[in-house]
Amino acid sequence: MKVTKGSLVAPLFFAALGIACFASQLGVALPWALATVALVLVGWAGREGRAGTSPIALATLSYAAWVALSTLALSPAYTSAGLYHPVLLILSFLVIRRLTAGAERWAAISTMALGGILALWGLAQLAWLGMARAHAMLETPATYATVLNLVLVPMVALTAAGHRNALVLGSIVVASAGLFAADSRGGLLGLAAGIGCAVFLASRTKLLRPRHLALALALVAAGALLVAALRVLPSSQQTERPTATERSESSVSRLELFALALKTWRERPWLGHGYLTYEYTFEKGRAGVPSYQRTQATSFVHNDYLQTLSELGLIGVAAFLAFVWLPLWMAYRRIRLLEAEHQLVVVACASALASMAIHALVDFPFYVPICLVLYGFFLGALEKRVCTLKRANTTLPRYAGRWFRAIRAGALMVALVLLLRPVSAEYLAGRGLRDAAAGKGQRAALMLGLARSIEPADWRYHWYAGQFWDAQAVDSGRREAAQFAADAYAAGFAANPLEVRNLLGIISVHRRHRQLMDAPADPGTMQQWEAQALALAPLNPAVRRELGR
Questions:
Q1: Measured between alpha carbons, how far apart are the two ends of the chain, in Å?
Q2: At 15, is the secondary structure helix, strand, or coil?
Q3: What stretches in the chain show pLDDT beneath 50?
Q4: What is the per-residue pLDDT for 389?
Q5: Stated pTM of the model
Q6: Of 51, 420, 360, nearest in space to 186 by CA
């Protein structure tokens, strides 16, 4: 059997989705990079031709560009996630909109297969592992519910439009069972929003079949009954589900997080505080979130609209709103002008997008790699059908064409360097920490130093180096080690003045190794550092312990 490029789309896209699932749980650069490579290969295998521009493409690119700009230039707290998140979204969107019809169909089948595997995994967690809330390989039940909705809602939409297929009907039962096993209120809200969008758009055309819609809803109900039956099994009763009181307290805590985000947004209304800086906002304003204990923390507002407003400002939230809601508006306006086959795909894609857009009101799906990849998939498929793509003039004059190719090559090279740096630094830092644990001090110092040189804006590598040299100073009593530790912590605090751990490291080194340092900090400077730490994280236990000394 001859293997063609088109036949590779299904395994490559499934690999991209699987890696993105692991990336959503681990939060490190290597799986993000692997998912990026897999998406590039999908585009290579199923590429149809050149794609043009559209309002949806411009809105999506504007949002992604603003996230990257905030990460690289505007935020005081650099994070490599601020580069990879928009890249995964844009790549998924651009790749899908350029696939052939057959390749796009295989990508959809891969998506359905992933949803089935995740749903069965979650049901196994419920039935045999005794988990109260399923989450499969993903970090939280809410993220798990978002992913299942992105698979389930389009299948419900297709069935409601009269597209009956035994595999799809069975998949609805399995995926809905996985969704109910997650026990996520946000997931149920997203499901209702997605089905509502499908019914509304299908009713604007001649697609809606009430009897088939009733069948789809009956299959969803069957999934709920299956989960109810599984919860009766003795093996599934090892942990208790959240009580009504706990759910009520969770809702109150989210309102407190919302209020904190709005309060801090007013400090920098136009540009925001920087992508993924809410964790520092939370630590600074923890007193305004009394429902969270001192040992609990969060990086998310649990409302992507408010988090985007706080982190990216009015400019960023305007781009975000355009990127999220413009596709749905264009689907509503143009669906009647399309052929029936395209109408069916638009209803399925728009309902998936609506489910995640509404779920984002109470959770954080737009900060999760697998959700971004799936969202980009449906966004690209919808854009191909509702937008008249304006193709760029490819017959450029000779010299203009050369300049364009040179600029494009340079931009790609810069992007490649920016994306490879976090992977290289993470690898070197990991090697350095393992060498330090094995007693190979010289190699550990080299590896950690290289990681700091490659990613100087990332506070973590300075902190790792500070901890290493601090331990060396304790073990050997060398003056150089104490000074290296102080310098590393100081560099980390300069790289990210919102992160209190490096500042605590500076205070600790100058307190514990005063006799080893040529110029230990005077009491006034120590008090100034302590006041800074208290301002950054007033209720942080580590800050309290350090100040107590």
A1: 72
A2: helix
A3: 1, 392-394, 396
A4: 58
A5: 0.96
A6: 360
DSSP sequence for 236-270: G-SSPPPPHHHHHHHHHHHHHHHHHHHHHHTTSTT
Dump the DSSP string for 345-407: HHHHHHHHHHHHHHHTTTS-GGGSHHHHHHHHHHHHHHHHHHS--BPPP----HHHHHHHHHH
pLDDT at 1: 46
Listed as own residue / partner, the contacts of 205-210 with beta carbons closer than 8 Å and 24 or more positions apart are 205/335, 205/336, 205/340, 205/343, 205/347, 206/340, 207/160, 207/161, 207/162, 207/340, 207/343, 207/344, 207/347, 208/160, 208/161, 209/160, 209/161, 209/162
Residue 2 has what pLDDT?
52
As separate numbers, helices (DSSP H) first and strands (DSSP E) second, the chain gives 21, 0
- CATH top-level class of 422-548: mainly alpha
pLDDT for 125 = 95
What is the model's pLDDT at position 50? 61
Q: Phi/psi of residue 47, each to 5°? A: -65, 135
Please give the backbone phi and psi of residue 53, each rounded to the nearest 5 degrees, phi first: -105, 160
Q: Write the pLDDT tens digit of every residue in 69-100.
A: 999 999 999 999 999 999 999 999 999 998 99
Tokens of 256: 């407190």
Sequence ranges of the domains in the chain: 6-237+246-386, 422-548
d(CA 202, CA 200): 6
